[in-house]
Amino acid sequence: MKRQGQGRVVVGYGAESIIELEDGTLLRCKTRRRTGRAVCGDHVHFRQSTPQEGVIEQILPRRNQLSRTNYRGQERVLAANIDLLAPVIAPEPEPDFMLVDRYLVLAEHIGAQAAVVCNKADFTVTGYPDLRERMDLYRMLDYPTIETSAATGSGVEALAAVIGTGTGILVGQSGVGKSSLINRLVPDRHARTQALSHASGQGRHTTTETTLYRLPTGGSLIDSPGIRILRLAHLSTDELAHGFRELRPWLGQCQFRDCVHREEPECAVRAAVKRGDIAPYRLAAFHRLLDETRGG
Prior knowledge:
single chain; alpha/beta; seven-stranded mixed β-sheet; five-stranded mixed barrel; 8 helices; 25% strand
């Protein structure tokens, strides 16, 4: 039966997308040139043309979008309408806290909630004092921190509860167990992947594409291999600074409006660091990100 209505993009292949309708039906859709490129997570209006195919007539306004900037400064949108961005770290491999801070800045910039997930908690996180210290700091900054074990399933329910009925995305370096966590959150992931491959009409593999899965708990989870490497060149200096939530109370209080909180006199941010209101490593992280994005 031909119909029209709203759906959500589950995976995109350039000019084609697979959308999921409210009843769970998967529909392969083409995108009109005037409509623009639909991405995973987009809410769209569609018109069905055959039992398996349709056309995306309109991409509904995005609440936010997750982008990756390449080394030429070009921005590519990977996913849209994110409610929770959750960096995943683990005792092994050695945590990349700069990457975590990048993700937290990005979450603040796009207006998404953020939570820090420490996987492989069965390694006994207490044996890694640097990791424990950083997790405590993120908690003090009011970021939910969740300890999980994809091996045992510990903490997975807590992670699903943080996602709730919204749309979450797990991000982080390779080897921390994101795929294993996704398998725990989406027990029928293999079957879903097979269904998407069939719906594509060409047996496409979706393991390298940004893909949305419905969770049994009512929310959705986006798996995006495309953002393992994250650059923030598209953010201004002010946007970077506002991405560090503990810097915000002091921004605009420095003697100079263009203060970047290095050696400038009467710097309110550096004064806050001296008082212990801002962790020194977080200001150092801001400077490293600023240097990276400005070629310093």
